[in-house]
């Protein structure tokens, strides 16, 4: 076999190995890719079924309840337009409070309850993830448009 043919074989094997490694990396990336959805998007059916994603918004005041085991908690995430009930079994972050921002990662159950595997709390009064801030602004403007359209102005 000529040296030229040996070089082509090594290059071909190298490209094949590179393609195989790329496929494994892309497959792992695809499995670990987690998208963010708002409660409005979840209520509208835009969130994936049977696949993990993140939901974020504000923890509704008065919605936090704990079960007798001390680990299972139930609360409601809202973007001021829609509400999604969340169930989490584990230890909540210290900064997790009602009326504050939170992001939960998990899957949507068959009954519409979000089954969280991880809960993150907003760590600062001034910071909010850009997606969550944008979603809250859209929800507030949509709610404002709905209420302003029902107002009747007397032109006297």
Secondary-structure element order, as H and E? HEHEEEEEEH
The CATH class of the domain at 36-144, by name, is Mainly Beta
Average pLDDT score? 84
Unreliable runs = 147-156
The CATH topology label of the domain at 36-144 is OB fold (Dihydrolipoamide Acetyltransferase, E2P)
**Helicity, as a percent range:** 25-40%
What distance separates the N and C termini? 100 Å
CATH superfamily of the domain at 36-144: Nucleic acid-binding proteins
- Helical element count? 3
- The total of beta strands comes to 7
The description of the largest β-sheet is: 5 strands, mixed, barrel
- Reported CATH architecture of the domain at 36-144: Beta Barrel
Structural class: alpha+beta
Our estimate of the beta-strand percent is: 25-35%
Radius of gyration: 24 Å
Query: Strands across the major sheet, in which order?
Result: 2-4-5-7-6
Shape: elongated
């Amino acid at each position: 076999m000529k040296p030229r043919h040996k070089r082509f074989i090594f290059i071909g094997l190298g490209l094949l190995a590179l393609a195989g490694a790329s496929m494994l990396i892309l497959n792992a990336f695809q499995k670990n890719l987690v998208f963010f959805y708002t409660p409005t998007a979840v209520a509208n059916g835009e969130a994936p079924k049977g696949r993990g994603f993140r939901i974020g918004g504000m923890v509704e005041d008065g919605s936090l309840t704990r079960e007798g085991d001390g680990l299972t908690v139930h609360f409601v995430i809202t973007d001021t337009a829609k509400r999604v009930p969340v169930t989490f079994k584990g230890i909540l972050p210290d900064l997790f409070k009602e009326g504050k921002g939170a992001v939960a990662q998990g899957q949507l159950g068959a009954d519409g309850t979000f089954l969280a595997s991880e809960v993150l709390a907003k760590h600062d009064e001034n910071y909010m993830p850009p997606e969550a801030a944008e979603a809250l602004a859209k929800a507030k403007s949509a709610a404002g448009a709905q209420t302003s359209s029902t107002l009747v102005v007397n032109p006297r």
